[in-house]
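Bug report

Summary: structure tokens for Hemolysin, plasmid differ between web form and batch submission.
Environment: batch mode, default settings.
Steps: 1) Submit the sequence below via batch. 2) Compare with the web form result.

Sequence submitted:
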Amino acid sequence: MNVSQRGLGSILRSGIKIRVIDKDGKMFILPDRDSSNQLLTPIVKEKPSITQSDDSIIIPENRVLNKIVMDEFDVYLSPELQKQAFLSNLLKHKSIPNIMLLPVIDLLAGNDIVINKNQGCSVIVGGKGNDTLIVEGGHHILFANEGNDKLFGGKGNDVLISDTGNDYLDGGEGNDIYLINKHHGEITIDDSQGDNTLFITGLNKDEMMSSSRDDNDEVLCSLDNTFIVRIKNKYKEPRASYQIEQKERVLTDEALVSIIHEMAQFNQNQLSSMKGTFLPEAKDWTLLPIITQHLT
């Protein structure tokens, strides 16, 4: 990003908090003109934990995640906090084999940032704030939840879920799956790579969203104009392909548990096939068959 000196000055004077990530994945906040200390201030704790405030969690690439490691880092929630977290509360009464080998990060209130640089699988759920979820390698499920969230997939075949708010979704490389439940808001999908599948769920019987072109974007709109899905640069070369499925059915809690069960089994197979610290790539693995099954 090229920013002029004048432009940078305007940004700094606006009061925006600028966060910087160094080459080792550590996060810092840029001081403003009123700061007594003009040095970069680290904002990621050595032992990251999930709280009701603004959390910043970075999971390094070389850390193999399992229950022991996650407990050590306080990334799994205490029983008291589980009551306030969507997915942890849903899963606690379910018997899912190998679930303790699958990182499930359930955020709470606050505007949180999670960056998972790990090559394995994970399930990351946003909380009540405006959250930013970023993954790099592996295959992941990212759930926007409440607030206006930003989800960034990585190299794998990721699943990005939105059912409330004005969310921004970018699956990155791989053949990604977007699950968007009808709600009041505008969703932006910005993914120029892979063969992607977009499920729009929760439509009324016989309802079909209208489609129009806005410059290089495709814009899908509900009949009452309160729900909009914008696919950025769909008509710009080079471009990704999208299979768009409009469904009356919605992804139930039981279906979500079933999908996480499928990922937990795959994750266990990946961990058992590790060579040293390297996981098999499994580029062709996808959750598309089981998701399609639950929406048919």
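Above is the batch result. After comparison, the two runs are identical; trailing whitespace caused the diff. The chain has six helices and 19 strands. Residues 253-272 form the longest helix (20 residues).
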